[in-house]
Design brief:
It is built from twelve helices and 51 strands. By secondary structure, it is α+β, with helices and mostly antiparallel strands. It folds into six domains: 127 residues, Immunoglobulin-like, CATH 2.60.40.60; 202 residues, Sandwich (Immunoglobulin-like); 98 residues, Immunoglobulin-like, CATH 2.60.40.60; 103 residues, Immunoglobulin-like (Sandwich); 115 residues, Sandwich (Immunoglobulin-like); 123 residues, no CATH class. Strands 1-7-6-3 form a four-stranded mixed sheet. The chain has a four-stranded mixed sheet with strand order 8-14-13-10, with no helix packed on it. Strands 16-23-22-19 form a four-stranded mixed sheet, with no helix packed on it. Pfam families: Cadherin, Cadherin_2, Cadherin_C_2. One of its GO terms (cellular component) is plasma membrane. Potential calcium-dependent cell-adhesion protein. May be involved in the establishment and maintenance of specific neuronal connections in the brain.
């Protein structure tokens, strides 16, 4: 017994090896034609080799290790896995073919989904049957009643055994224990199955033997063969010479799968020629599986066959079973019922998303696969034919693939700035009448690519800043927008250059990198820089970065920070702070001057601009206020009326120059006017003015001379004699020659009659005292003896006039 078990085990293993070899050869053959097919024996342990999937599909091992390849099956249970290191397809658990496939030989179909690049491959695995199931009967014993008058040759159908295995391992034959009264015959059904029948070989005599017990054995074709037995118990009944007879041997019906429960499928009819109880026929199921009894019910009296449960074409589309008619005497007849289930469009398509590549970069080329779908309709024929389409506005299209798979690809270029995500509805519709459909939504996010440069709100900016601003004051805020997202849309700013170059303009302003705010680096001065331009560059954070520039022109606004400056009458050097005042310029006006006579012109400038530089002139102080007037805008000093004899010979005028700023700034100019017809007439007035100006110096000089005279009278006498000698050689008029013709302002014959016509051209000269060696040229002759006492004052005046310093004006013809 142990030796036979070992032999049978080796035979079984040999069959498994052959089946595995055949499966590998079949897989290689199918891979060459675009679809992989493998086969593997059932009951193999977990991790058993099925096929080299990576090699057959040309996949790289790094892609397997990174999880870029996965197996997608229709059911929830994964029967196969992909070894990440070797690329081999192996079993995930022990596979029972009978539980998984039933009567279908090739039942495992799955897809291999490759992510990079996105693609799907169809793989079919045939589970090779192993003879691991013995034939079985639904009952432990079969009871038959046979009348004693039944003639020899009568046949009695017996229950067929069931074998879950397929092919050569399925049920092969039946055997009956030896008995002279009965033999076993085989009848082949329309479906190809063998129906065992008990054949009566000779007439029975109930009085001799009222019952028989036989054993029916069912044997399959496996190696080693498996068998199953059932006991057949035969009861010999009293005579009933007519058995029921069905009107048909085979009853056929075609019903829809959505037939309501309790609906009539068909009605069988059997007749019996006997009378009484022997002629009363009752109907029942023959030896049929229990699952058939759940779906159908037969009325024992009428023979009506009705549905007991809902029918489903997708589960089984044809049922074949037997009905029995039995009379009251125990005689029976049998018929076969064949019911075809027609398909109804009662299943909507099922959509399964196998893979979704989201987000997808916006620069993905047209035709990029973004999703792989699996669509299945459990109906058959046109009811199971499915078409898919996309609903919604999106640059996507759907392409049919093999095996009910579909690919969603990009139909045109993507632009994240226009749409950051796309929502489309996949609609699957069958061809039934009416058509059924189902849908699922796909949400595809678009990732950003740095394809947009920052854009300024304005190509050129203008900013206005008042001068004397504080350092760090805000000048302007520029802003650039980038349509990209994340780092690609994050904008930073800096100075790119300016009108005077980056080195010349950059020190004036700076820009904040994040906000784009321009700040003044130092206080601006309108008088030094009235305007300047800088270029601001905006750059995003992409790689590579994109940038753009904008020009910012800054205009410095003037403030009234400069007072008017008087050019004439010019102030002498003595007007510096802490020094004594220098004598102011003077003008000589003839007493015959009429109203409008041009006396002088006050010339002033202002470094500011605009209203801050508009100057106005006003006479604020005068010896004779009614005698002179000054032009409001021209600064020309003219006589307001004719000069009279009563007017003082010396006139002092003070004019103020104001600008139009807020607040206004001003400066003053002082002018001395001498009223005289000629220069000789004006000399006394000038001498008194000079003497008065040099009084402190003359007094000091007097004491010095006196001290020197006491110490060296002889030396002073020698000097006096030398000076007198030089004066005599110089000749008259020594006074005028000392003063010079340009020290006084006189009106010549060409002086215009109309004093209001305009401003006369002027030139200004400075008369400086001669050096010590030139003293004899400036020496004066001694006064005559007949001079009055006040001639001594005149002598001092002449001396100061010669050696003093005056600023005078000369009229140019």
């Amino acid at each position: 017994g142990e030796a036979r078990v070992a032999v049978d085990s080796r035979r079984g293993w040999g069959r498994r090896q052959r089946a595995l070899l055949w499966g590998v050869l079949l897989a290689v053959w199918e891979a060459a034609w675009g679809q992989l097919r493998y086969s593997v024996p059932e009951e193999m342990p977990k991790g058993s080799f099925v096929g080299d999937l990576a090699k057959d599909l040309g996949l790289q091992l790094p892609a397997l290790q990174d999880g870029g390849v996965r197996i997608v099956s229709e059911g929830r249970t994964q029967y196969f896995v992909l070894h990440g290191k070797t690329g081999h397809l192996v079993t995930a658990e022990r596979i029972d073919r009978e539980q998984l496939c039933g009567s279908v030989q090739q039942c495992v179909l799955f897809e291999v989904l490759v992510h990079s690049p996105l693609n799907v491959f169809h793989v079919e695995v045939a589970i090779v049957d192993v003879n691991d199931n013995s034939p079985t009967f639904s009952k432990a014993a079969l009871d038959l009643e046979i009348g004693e008058l039944i003639p020899p040759g009568a046949r009695f159908p017996l229950e067929m055994a069931r074998d879950a295995d397929v092919g050569s391992n399925s049920l092969l034959t039946y055997q009956l224990t030896s008995n002279p009264s009965f033999t076993l015959a085989m009848k082949e059904n329309p479906g190809g199955k063998k129906q065992p029948e008990l054949v009566l070989e000779k007439a029975l005599d109930r009085e001799k033997q009222s019952s028989f017990e036989l054993v029916l054995m069912a044997v399959d074709g496996g190696d080693p063969a498996r068998s199953g037995t059932v006991q057949v118990r035969i009861n010999v009944t009293d005579a009933n010479d007519n058995s029921p007879v069905f009107s048909k041997r085979i009853y056929e019906a075609r019903v829809a799968e959505n037939l309501p429960v309790g609906s009539l499928v068909l009605q069988v009819l059997a007749t019996d020629a006997d009378a009484g109880s022997n002629g009363k026929v009752s109907y029942s199921f023959g030896n049929i599986p229990e699952d058939f009894r759940v779906l159908f019910a037969v009325d024992s009296e009428s023979g009506e066959l009705r549905t007991a449960s809902p029918l489903n074409f997708e589960e089984k589309h044809k049922y074949i079973f037997g009905l029995e008619a039995r009379d009251g005497g125990g005689l029976t007849d049998h018929c076969e019922v064949e019911i075809d289930i027609t398909d109804e469009n009662d299943n909507a398509p099922e959509i399964t998303i196998l893979s979704l590549s989201s987000p997808v970069p916006e620069d993905a080329p047209t035709g990029t696969v973004v999703a792989v779908l699996k669509v299945r309709d459990r109906d058959s024929g046109e009811n199971g034919q499915v078409s898919c389409e996309l609903s919604g506005e999106a640059p996507l299209s759907i392409v049919a693939s093999s095996g009910g798979s579909y690919k969603v690809v990009t139909a045109s270029a993507l632009d994240r700035e226009q749409a950051s995500e796309h929502r489309v509805t996949v609609v699957a519709r069958d061809r039934g009448r009416p058509a059924l459909w189902s849908s699922t939504e796909l949400v595809l996010e678009v990732s950003d690519v740095n394809d947009n440069a920052p854009v300024f709100e304005e190509a050129a900016y203008s900013a206005y800043v008042a001068e004397n601003n504080a350092a760090g004051a805000l000048v302007l805020r520029v802003q650039a927008r980038d349509a990209d997202a994340g780092a690609n849309g994050r904008v930073s700013y800096w100075l790119a250059g300016g009108s005077a170059g980056a080195a010349g303009a950059a020190p004036l302003v700076s820009v904040e990198a994040r906000s784009g705010a321009l700040y003044a680096q130092r206080s601006l001065d309108y008088e030094q820089c009235r305007e300047f331009a800088v270029e601001v560059r905006a750059q995003d954070g992409g790689s590579p970065a994109r940038s753009s520039t904008a020009t910012v022109r800054v205009f410095v606004l003037d403030r009234n920070d400069n007072a008017p400056r008087v050019l004439w009458p010019a102030a002498g050097p003595g007007e510096a702070p802490g020094a004594a005042s220098a004598p102011a310029p003077f003008e000589v006006v003839p007493r015959s001057a009429e109203a409008g006579y041009l006396v002088a012109k006050v010339v002033a400038v202002d470094a500011d601009a605009g209203r801050n530089a508009w100057l106005s002139y006003e006479l604020v102080q005068a010896t004779e206020p009614a005698l002179f007037r000054v032009g409001l805008h021209s600064g020309e000093v003219r006589t307001a009326r004719a000069v009279s004899e009563r007017d003082a010979a010396k006139q002092r005028l003070v004019a103020v120059v104001k600008d139009h700023g807020q607040p206004a700034l001003s400066a003053t100019a002082t002018l001395h006017v001498v009223l005289a017809e000629s220069l000789q007439e004006a000399l006394p007035e000038l001498s008194e003015r000079a003497a008065g100006a040099d009084a402190p110096a003359a007094e000091l000089q007097f004491y010095l001379v006196l001290a020197l005279a006491l110490l060296s009278a002889l030396f002073l006498l020698s000097v006096a004699l030398a000076v007198l000698a030089r004066l005599r050689r110089a000749g008259p008029p020594a006074v005028l020659r000392c003063l010079g013709a340009q020290r006084f302002s006189v009106a010549g014959a060409a002086f215009p009659a109309d004093f209001c016509e305009g401003t006369l051209p002027y030139s200004y000269n400075l008369c400086v005292a001669a050096p010590a060696r030139a003293v004899p040229e400036a020496a004066w002759p001694p006064p005559p003896l007949f001079l009055r006492h006040d001639s001594y004052k005149n002598w001092n005046w002449w001396r100061s006039l010669c050696f003093g310093t005056y600023a005078v004006k000369t009229v140019m013809p």
